[in-house]
């Protein structure tokens, strides 16, 4: 790993920690990631923040595992998520290779400041809340 890249990652990591501390947000660090426990509608989630490469801060939280979504509704659910992203641009839903569904935010490290960090960060609980209250009921999904 180049020194400049490592320095940018450390700088970004420190900046995120400083922003979280300024709002007294509880977090812990493990294996080069920041973990933030979050409760929404009496359900517990964990937002993970990591620095990817020289340029990106990526924050995400698992909403629902693929195994909890019936095969016959999975494609319709993904279409619903895309429509919601179109109608509410600050919310981003994505999936991993296993088909698990997340709320996420990607932020450019070189332009991040306090305000746009929190704009991205708070889009995650907002997306989870929307999923729980508006999307999950349509598909009779149980969020654990």
In words, what does this structure look like?
- The protein has a single domain, classed as Yope Regulator, Chain: A (2-Layer Sandwich).
- β2 and β3 form a beta hairpin.
- It is α+β, with helices and mostly antiparallel strands.
- It is elongated and about 50 Å long.
- The chain has a six-stranded antiparallel β-sheet.
How would you sum up this structure in a few lines?
The protein is 41% helix and 28% strand. The chain has 3 helices and 6 strands. The chain has helices spanning 3-22, 71-87, 114-135; strands spanning 28-30, 33-40, 43-52, 56-64, 93-95, 101-108.
Descriptive labels:
single chain, 144 residues, alpha+beta, Yope Regulator, Chain: A, 6-stranded antiparallel β-sheet, 3 helices, 41% helix, elongated
Second CATH tier, the architecture: 2-Layer Sandwich
**Mind telling me the CATH class?**
Alpha Beta
The radius of gyration computed from the alpha-carbon positions, rounded to a whole number of angstroms, is 16 Å
Number of strands: 6
* Low-pLDDT stretches: none
Q: What is the straight-line distance between the termini?
A: 39 Å
On the 0 to 100 scale, the average pLDDT is: 91
């Amino acid at each position: 790993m180049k020194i400049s890249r490592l320095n940018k990652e450390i700088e970004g990591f420190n900046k995120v920690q400083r922003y979280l501390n300024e709002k007294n947000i509880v977090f812990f660090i493990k294996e080069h990631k920041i973990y933030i426990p979050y409760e929404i509608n009496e359900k517990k989630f964990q937002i993970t923040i990591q620095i990817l490469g020289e340029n990106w801060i990526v924050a995400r939280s698992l909403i629902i595992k693929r195994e909890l979504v019936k095969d016959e509704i999975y494609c319709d659910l993904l279409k619903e998520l895309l429509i919601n992203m179109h109608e509410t641009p600050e919310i981003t839903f994505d999936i991993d290779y296993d088909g698990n569904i997340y709320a996420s935010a990607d932020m450019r490290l070189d332009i991040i400041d306090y305000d746009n960090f929190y704009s991205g960060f708070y889009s995650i609980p907002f997306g989870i809340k929307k999923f729980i209250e508006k999307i999950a009921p349509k598909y009779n999904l149980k969020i654990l």
